[in-house]
């Protein structure tokens, strides 16, 4: 039974086109996936959420974006003294949008400010991941007070919504030349978040 469900889930034909059209995803019933399976999915999720393509924007209350220049591996505070302010979009100083365009065209040139289909901005402070351990991010991600009020299905729905608006999450796997990508693909990340959710969102002890 358990194996059957997982096989079904993994066999789902998830493609970018299907995702863009879907409004939600089938969430297997709670308890249908084992805790061990959920913890394995979490290991893969952890490698994604701690990756610079995600964590560079999920920074804390100092409001300073992190950056990893095209072709480099070292991550450090954003150059040019960029400060996002409490607005998290830089209205207090230099708005992110003065360099980062809003466009759903692919990012093709190295060393350019990356863009997506919505205005570039930091994630809210409550969603701070940068420099946190995987276990810390895990308990935070399942806490509705620190994830925007989302249950497990709501987190998966957020991924689909982000794909529809050509947002930050799918961008991480097509970030443009010279930038590394998190392991797996956007589609496997959606699958992992679904499996983790159905297993009851287990976190490493
Ligand atoms: C350019 C900045 C940026 C990048 C890069 C980015 N995010 Fe976010 N993220 C945001 C913003 C802004 C929000 C708030 C949007 C909302 O809650 O509707 C957010 C919210 C979220 C949320 C919901 C709240 C929470 O923390 O539980 C998740 C999950 C998330 N991002 C996952 C990711 C993942 C996974 C990646 C990388 C694959 C990523 N983000 C990359 C800016 C970013
Ligand atoms: C003066 C222009 C400029 C402004 C303003 C600016 N950026 Fe950037 N940003 C860049 C450039 C250029 C890059 C790419 C650097 C490279 O790869 O060489 C970049 C890269 C980034 C990255 C790294 C992405 C990655 O893949 O590692 C993040 C995160 C980021 N900016 C966030 C912001 C935020 C948030 C704001 C507003 C508070 C902002 N930026 C304002 C020019 C700017």
TrEMBL record:
Against InterPro entries, the record matches this protein to: Multihaem_cyt_sf
The signal peptide here is 1-20
- Keyword hit for Signal: yes
Keywords, A to Z? Signal
- UniProt protein name: Isoquinoline 1-oxidoreductase subunit
